[in-house]
Amino acid sequence: MTSYSRKTWTFRRPLDLAAVLLVSGLAACTNLAAVREFAKTSASSADFAQVVTDYESSPERQLIYQQEGEANERLKALAERRKDQAPRLLDCQKIIVDYMDALGDLAADELTSVDSELDGLSKALEEAGFIGDADKVISKASASAAAAIAKVLIRVVQDGWRKGEVCKIVLEVNPHLQEALAGMKEVLDLDLRTSLQNERAAIEKRFGAWTASAKANGDPDGAPPVSRVLLAERVREIDRMEQLLDRYLTVLNIIANGHLDLAENIDSLTTEETIVAIERHSKDLRTLYKQILILAK
Amino acid sequence: MSITRDQARDLARQFRELSVQLGDYRFSNWGTLTAAKRRDIENIEWTLLNYSSDFVTTAVGLALDDIANDFVVITRATRRARRAIKRLETVKDVLKIASALVALGGAIASKNPSAILSSAGDLVETIAAATD
């Protein structure tokens, strides 16, 4: 701050003032609110604990449909394997949530606002007798102007650095986040779905046997209709789990696309078009999250 | 020989389909099959279905192994973001400490013992909060 007098806090060269005002104007444009909104919404929507629980407990649910024997023992061993595997799946989710959460925090505008802290300092200076209107070292008017300039300067410097950090992090993480999310989507769409399909097959076997047995023994009107009703009930539960899978797949897609939008438009994060696109991702996530909460109940 | 996640997924699908087909055969021919035969077929069905579930679990494990390194990078970036936040918050803490220091200086200048004690207490609290 050598360009302006310490005592009077007036700018020595008008160009300096113009430069500061220009930079402060740019910083004001560097609005990361849309990034924060998207990151925070992603973090709260990425919780897929229920999907993992459904996958983990599937072998246990199937046990009641199978007869005691060698196959049954294999299923019990599988239940143990899935119990060991579930924390790894939950860790994936936690890492993504933590990342989006930290990105959201870093994109928070209030992070670089030191207004209240500077006001506190001004007040302390005044109370300590360094600022005043009589024969004090600094006049109230000068101190007030200095505080106003300091607020802008600190914000400009900090905002610039903060935006740089957000950019670096988003660009560095993006290829890995895309890979990680693609891998998770595969696990959800192929493996966890196959797990549910196997459970559906197990349920249908038990009820299929009941119906076939009843028909073969001359009871086509008694047991089979009841069997159909009970089967439909069980299958509805599998349908609900599959719907939950579909919703989470969409959530992961939106997070992947939103982050890709951020990375590809990192130099133009302030344009209206980019902000609108990112806000749309946030809105979609919020809508989906509400549906997931209903399905997970 | 280890299998890939795609092979595990393919095997999971094929084993389930075989199990379902055998089940369909058992139900369609219920009356003509003996009870022992039906039990034998059913046992094979469950074995095939459980193998399928085994392969699903294997595929999940392999898929998670494949993306483990990507998660390491994401975790590292999260730590970087947290460090950046800490650095930005430090500026606020410095200003808070400066305010507390000025207040203490003013209290000392006023030679008011209770004000000095109170300001010193505030300074200690501010520093403690900043270094938390």
Brief overview, please?
The complex is a heterodimer of chains A (297) and B (132). With 297 residues, chain A is mostly helical.
Contiguous uncertain segments of 5+ residues of chain B: none
Number of strands of chain A: 0
Strand content of chain A: under 5%
| Rounded Rg of chain A | 30 Å
From N to C, what is the helix and strand string of chain B? HHH
Quaternary structure type? heterodimer
Q: Terminal Cα separation of chain A, in Å?
A: 60 Å
Shape of chain B: rod-shaped
The helix-strand sequence of chain A is HHHHHHHHH
Largest beta-sheet details of chain B: none
Report on the architecture of this protein.
Chain A has 297 residues and is mainly alpha-helical. Helix content of chain A is 80%, strand content 0%. Chain B has 132 residues and is an all-alpha fold. Chain B has one domain (5-130). Chain B is 89% helix and 0% strand. Chain B has 3 helices and no strands. In chain B, helix 1 packs across helix 2 and helix 2 (35-110) packs antiparallel against helix 3. Chain B is rod-shaped and about 105 Å long. The model of chain B has no long low-confidence stretch (mean pLDDT 88). Chains A and B meet through helix 4, helix 5, helix 6 and helix 7 of A and helix 1 and helix 2 of B.
